[in-house]
C-alpha cells in the first residue's frame, strides 16, 4: 500500500485516536487537581544534650534542614536520617518517652518533636528534631 493511500484511510482513525488521547490527558489532569495537597513541614535541629568538652557540637546549637545538614556530625546525621525523612513526609512516631527528659510533643496541627542520640557512646550527644507544620 502506498503511503498516501494509507494516510487517507487512517486519517479518520488517527484523528479519533488523537481526540481520545487528549480526553484521557484531560481526565488525568483533573484527577491530579482533585488529590489533597500534601502537608509541608519545616524541620529544625537543636543539640539537646552534649558533653561540655564535646569537639563537634555544643548544647543549644541550632540547625535547619536541609540547609545546615552538612554541618551536623556525620555519625549523628546517620542516626537522624531515617527519623528526619519520616517526619518530613508527615509520619509521627508513636512512642512518647513519658516521664523522661525526652518526652515528646506530638501536635498534628503544629509542632512535633523527636530525639535522636549519637552512636558514639562517649559523646553523650542528643539532638532534638523539631517539625513545624507550614500553613
Topology overview:
Blueprint: H1 3-34, E1 40-49, E2 62-65, H2 74-88, E3 111-117, E4 126-134
Antiparallel strand pairs: 1-2, 1-4, 3-4
Protein name: TIGR04076 family protein
Overview of the structural elements:
- With 135 residues, this protein is of the alpha+beta class.
- The chain has two domains: 35 residues; 95 residues, no CATH class.
- Helices cover 35% and strands 22% of the residues.
- The protein is built from two helices and four strands.
- It has a four-stranded antiparallel sheet, covered by helices on one side.
- A hairpin with an 8-residue loop joins strand 3 and strand 4.
- The longest helix has 32 residues.
- It is elongated, with a radius of gyration of 26 Å.
- The mean pLDDT is 85.
Amino acid at each position: 500500500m502506498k503511503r498516501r493511500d494509507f494516510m487517507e484511510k487512517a486519517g479518520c482513525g488517527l484523528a479519533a485516536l488523537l481526540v481520545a488521547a487528549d480526553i484521557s490527558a484531560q481526565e488525568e489532569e483533573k484527577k491530579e487537581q482533585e488529590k489533597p495537597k500534601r502537608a509541608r513541614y519545616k524541620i529544625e535541629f537543636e543539640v539537646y544534650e552534649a558533653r561540655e568538652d564535646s569537639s563537634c557540637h555544643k548544647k543549644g546549637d541550632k540547625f535547619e534542614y536541609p540547609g545546615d545538614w552538612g554541618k551536623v556530625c556525620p555519625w549523628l546525621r546517620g542516626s537522624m536520617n531515617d527519623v528526619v525523612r519520616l517526619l518530613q513526609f508527615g509520619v509521627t512516631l508513636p512512642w512518647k518517652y513519658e516521664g523522661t527528659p525526652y518526652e515528646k510533643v506530638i501536635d498534628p496541627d503544629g509542632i512535633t518533636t523527636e530525639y535522636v542520640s549519637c552512636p558514639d557512646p562517649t559523646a553523650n550527644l542528643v539532638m532534638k528534631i523539631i517539625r513545624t507544620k507550614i500553613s
